[in-house]
Structure formats: structure tokens, C-alpha cells
Amino acid sequence: MRVRTPTDVGLSIRERRKALQLDQAELARRVGVSRQWIIGIEKGKARADFSLVMRTLDALGIVLWAEDENSAAAQQTGDPLPFSAVRIADVLAAHRGAGAGQ
Questions:
Q1: pTM (2 decimals)?
Q2: Can you tell me the distance from the alpha carbon of 1 to that of 39, in angstroms, rounded to the nearest whole number?
Q3: Which domains does the chain have, with CATH numbers?
Q4: What is the predicted pLDDT for the residue at 25?
């Protein structure tokens, strides 16, 4: 799921909680927060404490993954190397070229 907003985070949390057959009270107990906090985060509470959000994701086994837009586009088009990646052969060739002129 592509996550761009607090609402997207909340939906991810709710979907995973339900898939694990946890109620909000049990998730709250596991995270160490109130049930009201879980309700808020599932609704996309924009000012939620980031460390609590991370603990919630961890309690649900959700991995937070970040990548730039170019990498995502490369994966969709089948490009074997994301735009943000570095080709080691190119780095070595550039280094050899710089050393040859000195």
C-alpha cells in the first residue's frame, strides 16, 4: 500500500489489526496506549507522536519502507536498476579516468 498521508497510515494499521483479529483494546495494550489513541490513529490523526506510531507498526509487524519516486517508477517499468542507485562500474571508470589525467 502506498502511504502518503496520516489517513493512509491509519488505514494500514486498521487493516493489519483486523487481519490479525485484534480488537482496538488489545492493540492498545500491546502498544502501551489508550484505546482512544488507537481510534485516533486509525482515523488518520495527523499529530500523533511518531514514536508511538512506530511502536504500533512494530506491534502489528508492519515494516515502514521509504523510497524515492524514481525508484518506485523504475520498479513499475521493469528497469533493473533504480534511478537513485549507483553503478559501481561507472564509479570505478570515472575514478580511473580522473587518475589518468594527473
A1: 0.66
A2: 20
A3: 6-60 (1.10.260.40), 69-100 (no CATH)
A4: 98
